Amino acid sequence: MQLQTTKTTRRAFVGALSVLPWVGTALAQGSMTGMMNNMGGMAGMGGMSSAAAALAGLDRIGTGASLASLVKLTNTSQEAGVFRATLRAAPVSVGLMKDGTKTDVWAYNATLPGPLIEVMEGDTVEIEFINDLPQPSTIHWHGLPVPSDQDGNPHDAVVAGGRRLYRFTLPLDCAGTYWYHPHPHGFTAEQVSRGLAGLFIVRAKNDPLASIPERHVVFSDIKLNSDGRIADNDMNDVMNGREGQFVLVNAQFQPVMSFDARGRERWRIWNANSARYLRLNLPGAVFTLVGTDGGLLQSPVTGMTELLLAPAERVEVIVDAPANGGIVSLVTEPVERGKMGAFAPDQAITLMKVDFTNARPKGLVALPARLRRIDDLGPVKAQKRVVFSESMSMAGGMHSMKFLVNGKSFDMKRVDFVSNINEVEMWEIVNKSDMDHPFHIHGTQFQVIESEVDGKVTKGPYRAWRDMANVKSGEIVRLKMVQSQKGLRMFHCHILEHENAGMMGQVKVV
Known about the structure:
Helix content is about 10%, strand content about 40%. By secondary structure, it is mainly β.
């Protein structure tokens, strides 16, 4: 019997499983191996252990260190306008725990997070990728406008022990906050969860905010057993996406940031988590949103007291110190996104301390009223409709689950859509599942035009370039976009366990 996912059937299905004695015990212990052995690569992290290993307590990693700056990738080129370097993905042992217990992670150039690449719009980038992992891998340049054969999609996997050269020239007007990570089908979730992710900034030749001190803040999480090993997935990880108990900032646990004495900073923020949503709150401070995935907004959005970031989303914000100074906790509040299974209710999590003691916010000048020009893309020439859904079954007495696009699980051999190059399209993303799904498409960025829930339409709050759009359960989000380079492109949910489990499709641009 197969149950198509709806709010009623999916909750009923999970509830029915939990009342079976052996399943209820497994859920309570955080392990479902007995009923999940047939899920293969969907589980990620090499499957699930037969007995639930004890997770490390939060006191196992030290707190309070000064926030570290990101390691920058060195440009070895002597040519103007060319960035040339090497990225090597390999296992490495790191001492995350304060008692010296080692954790085996996978990292780019032995760095957590992977090194920051900084280039100018218009630059040519040449990166030699060396894959010293025991699995095939790629480097996907998330959000960057690169040719399809340089995009690091699943069709271009580099075998274990292999290497390849990525080379692309960035167009003008693509300045923004990007990142890079693996994208081999069936292995992406595991590789990112083990540590493979790095940062990429494309700088503008004329940046109206260049005089403001800049801070780089990367959020990721890691799930560790008490012996320091990276934990296997449990049933909740497979269903909801993997969330580690340690939420890190620049690969540190609850560090302390000393705020600039002048009282204002520009933060570039990356949500590099596989599945964790962030709802950031910094009491007393004021956020001004100035940029999204694809760079600066047309105009600043002032007076924000919290920021909501879906997995893989990035923002740029101006942070003004509170008048009374002091040390303030940056926290992420719980986000209701339709999670399933037996898990403890989400709680507010302290991410880091921000020390405003020496900040003196006096004489701060007004931000520019206009940051850049963002035009509407113009008349729509074609329509696309993407429906996210889920299915579960107990066929043969074994539990299985799929995450679907338009009723189908991802197939590398199937082209789901065909788009014409340079043609304006409206994509309608429909979420008929029980949980939120963050939509991502390769090769281009889009403008969020509107969303619809129960027939009520809400216009996009501001004009911006995006490559991520969260779609809530029961919601329709309409996006306007143009693909300007030919080739095969992926689109998918960026909860990586859902992507691995089939929630991905392909569009061929001709």
